[in-house]
Amino acid sequence: MPTWFAKQFGENKSAAVAAAGQQGDGQSAPGPVTPRQRRVIHAPLLASASAVATGNGIRIKAQIDSAEQQVVLMVDRPVLEGYSYWCTSPAEAAKWSPLALALFDSGGVATVLIHENNITVTHQDIGQASDDGVARHLGQLVRGHLESGAPAMAEGFLATMPSEDQVKEALQVVIDDEVNPGIAAHSGEITLTAVKGNTAYIKMGGGCQGCAASSVTLRQGVEQSFRSAVPQLGALLDETDHAAGRNPFFSAAPGGLGA
Amino acid sequence: MPRLETIEVAIETGKRALDGVPAYAINGHELEFDEVSGGKGPGESMRLVGSPRSFPHSLTLTGPDSGCWDIEKIEATFHVSGGDPYTVCLGAVTLDEETCLNLWYDRPPQLLDV
């Protein structure tokens, strides 16, 4: 270790590395060593380019997920505060959301989720030729709708909402009777962490945490059961930190970098 | 998963400084950084460069040997094979002798003004 380095940063780490690498002949061996187990924590990820209101004009940023055929439109102001709205057909949209109906009428839209500042649109053309073009078209449509003064949601939408306690109770029954018994074979479990308005927050634990198939379990299993039990359910958000814990994705093999 | 050739980490320390040498772990194996410059004292910033040259299933910044290390901000720049470098910015966090900080992030999704 250079003198300047030792002075500036101390010798503790190198001493520990050398001690751990000590061989039977008393010679230290260079190279990596397996450190003591530490708990992995996460720092907040700072958004560098989220939509922030700067004036009267409506700013919208789009984030494209080609694999999920989705585009998330992030509007610089709330579109639906305190609640969320999810719909899968123009007929449903015609009842409760002029904005969702406008999106469906533009063609190719499969689902619309409106939650706070975000509008998530599943579109059949995402993942095909020009994702950017689809995103720009949808963004212009949303901006035009909002700037026209037309409401995002129909009058009376909130009156149809069950109370948070009713939503919690209904979802907990589904979790206890249907979901958790079903995923127990994989040592998994789902916990309902909160309900805000008609938005549900869950965490996936046990074998589900960090599992590569967890998103499939959530979207094709849990979500469908939840929506059957609570048709007014809006967003279903997974709060699981799938990368937390002691390397849930991976256990290091002794003596190798695992590459 | 891309191969991570080198990682540059700029760290702004808060009130409590790091006790020990800055180190990182890739796939559970701890390594020292190849280059260390700047200061690790309270309010100082340091720049660290590591060359894991591997496929990171996990990549963590090791906590201090003792006490707590207050980090105000981190900018991690990833140089991956077959792609342009990208940078991720992280906010305040405190590490201790029981913890390490996740440093591995995929390339952030592109945001478009639409």
Beta-strand content of chain B? over 45%
Which structural class matches the secondary elements of chain B? mainly beta
The N- to C-terminal Cα distance of chain A equals: 27 Å
The structural domain count of chain B equals: 1
Q: Order of helices and strands of chain B, N to C? A: EEEEEEEEEEE
Question: If helices are DSSP runs of H or I spanning 4 or more residues, what is the number of helices of chain A?
Answer: 7
Number of helices of chain B: 0
Level-1 CATH class name of one domain in chain A = Alpha Beta
Q: Can you summarize this structure?
A:
The complex is a heterodimer of chains A (259) and B (114). Chain A is of the alpha+beta class.
Layout of helices and strands, plus pairs?
The complex is a heterodimer of chains A (259) and B (114).
Chain A: H1 3-9, H2 12-20, E1 39-41, E2 60-65, E3 70-75, E4 80-87, H3 90-96, H4 98-105, E5 109-116, E6 118-123, H5 131-147, H6 164-183, E7 188-196, E8 199-206, H7 214-229, E9 236-238
Parallel strand pairs in A: 8-9
Antiparallel strand pairs in A: 2-3, 3-6, 4-5, 5-6, 7-8
Helix pairs in contact in A: 3-4, 6-7
Chain B: E1 4-13, E2 23-26, E3 29-32, E4 35-38, E5 45-50, E6 59-62, E7 68-80, E8 86-90, E9 93-96, E10 99-102, E11 111-113
Antiparallel strand pairs in B: 1-5, 1-7, 2-3, 2-6, 4-5, 6-10, 7-8, 7-9
Features:
heterodimer; A: 259 residues; alpha+beta; Ribosomal Protein S8, Chain: A, domain 1; GMP Synthetase, Chain A, domain 3; five-stranded antiparallel beta sheet; 9 strands; globular; disordered N terminus; disordered C terminus; B: 114 residues; mainly beta; Lipoxygenase-1; six-stranded antiparallel beta sheet; four-stranded antiparallel beta sheet
Task: Please characterize this protein's 3D structure.
The complex is a heterodimer of chains A (about 260) and B (about 110). Chain A has helices at about 5-10, 10-20, 90-95, 100-105, 130-145, 165-185, 215-230; strands spanning about 40, 60-65, 70-75, 80-85, 110-115, 120-125, 190-195, 200-205, 235-240. Chain A has about 260 residues and is of the alpha+beta class. Among the domains of chain A are: about 60-160, Ribosomal Protein S8, Chain: A, domain 1 (2-Layer Sandwich); about 165-240, Fe-S cluster assembly (FSCA) (GMP Synthetase, Chain A, domain 3). Chain A has a five-stranded antiparallel β-sheet, with helices on one face. Chain A has a three-stranded mixed β-sheet with strand order 7-8-9, covered by helices on one side. In chain A, helix 3 packs antiparallel against helix 4 (about 100-105). Chain A is globular, with a radius of gyration of 25 Å. The model of chain A is unreliable at about 1-5, about 10-30 and about 245-259 (pLDDT under 50). With about 110 residues, chain B is an all-beta fold. Chain B has a single domain (about 5-100), classed as Lipoxygenase-1. Chain B has strands at about 5-15, 25, 30, 35-40, 45-50, 60, 70-80, 85-90, 95, 100, 110-114. In chain B, strands 1, 4, 5, 7, 8 and 9 form a six-stranded antiparallel β-sheet that branches. A four-stranded antiparallel β-sheet of chain B has the order 3-2-6-10, with no helix packed on it. The N and C termini of chain B lie far apart (about 30 Å). Strand 1 (about 40) of chain A pairs parallel with strand 10 of chain B, so a sheet runs across the interface.
